[in-house]
Amino acid sequence: MIKKVAILANGGDVAGFNAVIRGILKTAENTGVECYGFIDGYNGLLKNEFVKLSTAEAGNALGILPKGGSIIGSSTNANVFHYKVEKEDGTVEFQDLSDQCVENVKRNGFECLFTLGGDGTQKSARDFSLKGINVIGVPKTIDNDVACTEITFGYNTAVSVAMEALDRLHTTGETHHRIMVLEVMGRYAGWIALESAIAGGADVALIPEIPYDIERVASKIKNRQKRGKNFSVVVVAEGAKPKGGDITIQGKRNNGEGVDNNKLGGVGQVVAKQLEELTGLEARNTTLGYMQRGGTPTAFDRVLSTKYGVKAMQLALEGKFGTLAVIKNGKLDEVSLEEVVGNNKKIGAVSGNTEESNIRRVTMDDDLVKTARSIGINLGD
To answer: Which end of the chain, C or N, has fewer beta carbons within 10 A?
Structure first.
């Protein structure tokens, strides 16, 4: 019977982080297990910075269910298997500091480490499991692209925020006879763009999985004009790219080393400008950005996150380590972290954009794609 566990939240913040922490913590407290949280994700694991978590009166985890973000922080740039180290002479090198993390876990007596995160986070979790650490992952990302699960926590809230933005853009577009473009997150998977387009009544949805032909998009908008509809609403995933082209990158951190450091953004503005030139209608772009991540989680995400947290703690109590809590066929289940990382087997490889990465992308036979096409949403092809 385990007696002491630790949680880390890693990667970009999402609504639902705290609900998962609460689900793990309350289940732990009800079974006599002490629960701790590493501060700022894998950075805290490396620096051995953690706090004891409690839902008791005046405890640090009271009232966190509706709270956005993470009470124990998170990190977006910490690959401890390939960690940025600044030397005394000012030069920078990348080192494997994972053994220090393993030592910290063992020295503090943590019998299980819960890793709340996406593709990169769970890749490192799998690597730690090979080093003898008892690890259980929980799939987090607004992009909904973690392999082996039907839905990640944080996704529903992001879609809901995007949908509300589309509702508001509709009224402006209709009033001023404009093309309203909304750029949403989605580096390599178009789930947010596709689902929010359906929910928000958009006319076009451009996703990373379907390289778009801007002429076809313009044709869709012109046809709407012929029917007396002098405005259109377009949703663009940040990772969308034109046929024969590539994704739009604003910059690259650390020359791409350490983690997936491509900073995406700008494709919405590109699409808006092109459509304005091709259709003669004024076009405006809105980049939703971090609005999708922040704030209180939806009821759906609160429940899903709690279910994930409880399931993760139950897996620990059952000794089922090296696994990821998932939803399969609408029910809680678990899969091995080996299955999650797929062919991305190299220790320390964290990037989610390699051919070996096993991320969950939109497929052309998905019901969302079929639904979008059936109601006339143009997907750029």
So the answer is: N
pLDDT on residue 254:
62
Where does the pLDDT of residue 34 fall: very low under 50, low under 70, confident under 90, or very high at 90 and above?
very high
Using only C-alpha atoms, the chain has a radius of gyration, in whole angstroms, of 22
Q: In the predicted model, is pLDDT for residue 257 greater than 90?
A: no
Amino acid at 92: V
Distance of CA 190 to the CA centre of its chain: 12
Helix, strand, coil percentages, rounded to 5, for the chain: 35, 20, 45
Task: Determine the Cα–Cα distance for residues 272 and 27; give it in Å rounded to an integer.
Answer: 49
Active-site entry in 119, 143, 145, 301: 143
- Known catalytic residue at 143: yes
Give residue-wise pLDDT tens across range 39-87.
999 999 999 999 999 999 889 999 999 999 999 999 988 899 999 999 9
Q: Which residue has the higher pLDDT, 280 or 1?
A: 280
**CA 99 to each of CA 25, 80, 278, 323, 340: distance values in angstroms, whole numbers, following the listed order:** 27, 9, 56, 21, 23
- Strand-strand pairing, 4-9 and 112-117: parallel
- What domains are defined for the chain? 4-154+297-341 (3.40.50.450), 158-293+364-374 (3.40.50.460)
Residues 361/187, Cβ–Cβ less than 8 Å: no
DSSP code at position 12: S
pLDDT tens profile 311-348: 999 999 999 999 999 999 999 999 999 999 988 878 77
Of 45, 188, 34, 30, give the one whose Cα is nearest residue 116.
Answer: 45
